């Protein structure tokens, strides 16, 4: 494991940091096992409540200084972080792949996303525009400006162990906020590595210690962040179950929650589709990252006239899939994150069969040489009805459901007929169909694509979804506004005090 030394990962690491300094941690030890081979990678000492309080105090103090740094100067720090990530892309990408189980290419791709969001944030640091408005009163000027919020709490999921944090923190920082990260307890070493990489940049630039806090631990750390009125914004990525808990707790104190939760993403394959593109998009979307992306394709809604042809092509494509060590670039599908996820996959297969689903590619857990971790499963395909309970749920594994449709209205109704609303796509070369799908009568998701699959996204767009996906938007476009507070300012440079709406008030 040549990649651990450059990232300064030791046998036992502290899971508590204020950004520049790692602090002694007083919580339980978390052991990180690789789903690739079941071996222990290293351990992390988690933070307890007193460690959390230390990190909060440092963050509060750091904010009073950091908010006074001009935004472009904050952007310069983020630019240097991007450079550091370029330097460490290879070891960090390998660690992501080894600790999380995604393919090496996806591990590198995830670090590239971090670099890309740094570049985006640097440009944004010279923008953060507010509008100016024409006042209805003479000799008055009216405009709006954006100020930082304070501490941003970031709760992240295991499947994007580093990118999701960077989407949040890079934007939050250029906006003038300080961050406290609660990474997934399933991928703690990726978080420790990020802190080591970034602390060098922060130290070199005399950035106030506390802007990049981290407390590794179980869900209780997420609960502390959610309940803490000193944290005006909690950005939480993970399951809908988690989001409902976080949303309720943050809402009860009237804080802000930015929620990025589960998806149940579908591709509609029209009879007018380019079937080769459709198959490639569907297979990559369904089996990439072993079905553990929030944007994974879980449902194919296929026009009856091309249904059999799509089925045959899928069968042929699935026969070619190579399942195994994700660090070996010849393999297409790596492991699930842990045995708990494997058991969730098995339960979904049973539930699907019970409801009448017919498997055209059978699932199952793999064992034997190369599969010793017990986390490798077969990507599978079932023919189902849209109303099956199991089809309405997100199972975080490579299970693909096929459904048939006759009219586009029916296909859109099936696509929208689930509680989640993250990513969606239509494969069609027919302009009317494509436009209907993108219109107000079309997809109800935060992401709607034409002739590309559901999986993955570019950082330039706002990322997130509707309904049980939580409604949050991160990353590109104007997602930065979630990390700032808007202030409307009116300045009177006349010698009068005219009131709005022409109201007269004589004293
Ligand atoms: P998870 O909900 O089990 O855990 C996510 C994080 O929330 C972890 O850090 C966990 O410790 C914390 N947490 C759990 N319960 C909590 C609570 N009650 N209060 C506060 N924090 C709590 O999710 P996971 O298994 O790590 O990730 C998979 C899920 O994440 C999938 O549903 C996937 O779709 C979703 N996801 C969504 C997006 C998106 O952008 N929409 C991105 C990645 C993953």
From TrEMBL:
Signal peptide: none annotated. PROSITE patterns: ALDEHYDE_DEHYDR_GLU. The lineage of its organism: Bacteria, Pseudomonadati, Bacteroidota, Chitinophagia, Chitinophagales. It comes from Niastella caeni. Keywords: NAD, Oxidoreductase. Transmembrane segments: none annotated. Belongs to the aldehyde dehydrogenase family. This is aldehyde dehydrogenase (NAD(+)). One of its GO terms (molecular function) is aldehyde dehydrogenase (NAD+) activity. Homotetramer. Gene3D superfamilies: Aldehyde Dehydrogenase, Chain A, domain 1, Aldehyde Dehydrogenase, Chain A, domain 2. PANTHER family: ALPHA-AMINOADIPIC SEMIALDEHYDE DEHYDROGENASE (PTHR43521). InterPro entries: Ald_DH/histidinol_DH, Ald_DH_C, Ald_DH_CS_GLU, Ald_DH_N, Aldehyde_DH_dom, ALDH7A1-like. Residues 28-488 form the Aldehyde dehydrogenase domain.
């Amino acid at each position: 494991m040549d990649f651990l030394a450059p990232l300064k990962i030791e046998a036992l690491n502290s899971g508590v940091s204020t950004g520049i300094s790692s602090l002694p941690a007083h919580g339980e030890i978390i052991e990180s096992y690789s789903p690739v081979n079941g071996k222990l990678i290293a351990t992390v000492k988690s933070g307890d409540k007193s460690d959390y309080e230390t990190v909060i105090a440092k963050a509060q103090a750091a904010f009073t200084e950091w908010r006074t740094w001009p935004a472009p100067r904050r952007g310069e720090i983020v630019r240097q972080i991007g450079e550091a990530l370029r330097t460490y892309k290879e070891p960090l990408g390998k660690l992501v792949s080894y600790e999380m189980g995604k393919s090496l290419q996806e591990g590198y791709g995830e670090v590239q996303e971090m670099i890309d969001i740094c570049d985006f944030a640097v440009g944004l640091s010279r923008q953060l525009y507010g509008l100016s408005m024409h006042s209805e009163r003479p000799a008055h000027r009216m405009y709006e400006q954006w100020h930082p919020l304070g501490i941003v709490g970031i709760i992240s999921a295991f499947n994007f162990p580093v990118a999701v944090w960077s989407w949040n923190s890079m934007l939050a920082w250029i906006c003038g906020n300080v961050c406290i990260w609660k990474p997934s307890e399933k991928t703690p070493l990726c978080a420790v590595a990020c802190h080591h990489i970034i602390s060098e940049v922060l130290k070199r630039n005399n950035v106030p210690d506390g802007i990049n806090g981290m407390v590794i631990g179980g869900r209780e750390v997420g609960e502390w962040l959610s309940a803490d009125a000193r944290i005006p914004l909690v950005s939480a990525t993970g399951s809908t179950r988690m989001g409902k808990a976080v949303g309720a707790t943050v809402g009860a104190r009237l804080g802000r929650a930015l929620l990025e939760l589960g998806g149940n993403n579908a591709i509609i394959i029209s009879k007018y589709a380019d079937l080769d593109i459709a198959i490639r998009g569907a297979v990559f979307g369904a089996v990439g990252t072993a079905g553990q992306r929030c944007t994974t394709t879980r449902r194919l809604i296929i026009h009856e006239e091309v249904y059999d042809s799509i089925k045959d092509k899928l069968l042929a494509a699935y026969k070619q899939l190579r399942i195994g060590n994700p660090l070996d670039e010849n393999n297409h599908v790596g492991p699930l994150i842990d045995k708990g996820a494997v058991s969730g996959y098995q339960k979904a297969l049973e539930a699907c069969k019970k409801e009448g689903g017919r498997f055209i590619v059978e699932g199952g857990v793999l064992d034997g040489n190369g599969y010793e971790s017990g986390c490798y499963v077969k990507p599978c395909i079932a023919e189902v009805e849209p109303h099956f309970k199991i089809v309405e749920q997100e199972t975080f594994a490579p299970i693909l459901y096929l459904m048939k449709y006759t009219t586009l209205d029916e296909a859109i109704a099936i696509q929208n007929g689930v509680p989640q609303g993250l990513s969606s796509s239509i494969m069609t070369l027919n302009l009317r169909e494509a436009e209907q799908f993108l219109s107000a009568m079309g997809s109800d998701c935060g992401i709607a694509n034409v002739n590309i699959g559901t999986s993955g996204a570019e950082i330039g767009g706002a990322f997130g979804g509707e309904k049980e996906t939580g409604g949050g938007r991160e990353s590109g476009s104007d997602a930065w506004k979630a990390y700032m507070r808007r202030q409307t300012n009116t300045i009177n440079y006349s010698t009068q005090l005219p009131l709005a709406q022409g109201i007269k008030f004589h004293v």
